[in-house]
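Attaching the record inline, Q. Sequence:
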Amino acid sequence: MNPRSLSRLLLIGTLATTAGMGCSEARANKGEKAQLPAGASAGNGQPTVGVRATPALDKLQGDVARVTGQVRARLEATLSAPATGTIDKLLVNVGDRVKKGAPMMVLDTSNIAIGVDQAAAAREMAKAALDNANTELERTKKLFEGGSAAQAILDKVQAGQRQAAAGFSQADAAWRSAQETLRDHTLRAPFDGVVTARMKNIGDTVAMMPPTPIFMITNVDELEVRLPVPESLASALKDGMKLSGRVIPGNTPFEATVRTVGAVVDASSRTVEVLADVTGKPETPLRPGSLAELDFSRSEALAGLFLPSQALLKDDKGSYVFIVEDGRLVRRDVQALPVTPRFAQVRSGLQPQDKVVVEGAASLREGLAVSVVQ
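Structure, as predicted:
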């Protein structure tokens, strides 16, 4: 063989060796399952397989179990005109706190007040007529009992008394209706809250139908958080569970209690609406409309042990995992509930110190000799 051919063979051998080393490094960088060399054994002549095994997590980490929602008031209303008329008085401004039943706006009541006076006068007349009819009836009854009045006269007087009573009832109803109309010309707060908007001014004409908006009022003391929770995580939530949250931005911490978990899943986002009441008194008052982030990993809903979903296996007997004991794979039956697409909560069957195979478990079998490789 001439020197040129020999040099070419040496160059090809060097390139092949370098390529093999590069492929091995690439496989390592991709996180492929580490294995012991083919010649490794468990000490009794049987081959040993390298596996990734680790104890279960005692809580979900990072952003896995965090959901962003919105703080909103449980009570919020747009107040419209209770009657048709012209605004005569505006008694509150934007930012004012009002109590339930407090007057906020008064319409012009000059004509209504006259109607109330007329109804009151008619009621007084009807009352006088009724009193006179009652007196006449009592006198006629005495005369009839003494034989001085005929039955026909008594019947006529009794009919007159019933007519007077009906007249009074009608006049009384008209008077109360006029008073109610007068009260309807005053707009009152339906609950305790803060005036957040005012849409009309003194002198504006407003209508009851269609309704004319005048104020917006919000109860800022009773707040809730609306959360679009992933359907896999929502299944772990129950009414009354405690949650920890923070307002973003600002990081103001607060506590919330789950009030209701939605019964349907949003088809587009695959989320369930969860409403949680803000409890206690946060360091800084929360404002409706703020964004809030709630951490479910610290709640009682997600207490327990957690495994990557790929560590869970299933067969006709149920769910199970492989744990490493004395260099061998041992099947351990567990009860687990998916809480996120990547993690499951183990309810029973697993101890905190158990080393669970977390990668490639589907290709392994019970009793296999293994070595834990991190």
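The chain has four domains: 49-58+304-372, 66-74+222-301, 76-108+185-218, 112-168. The two ends are 50 Å apart (CA to CA).

More tomorrow.
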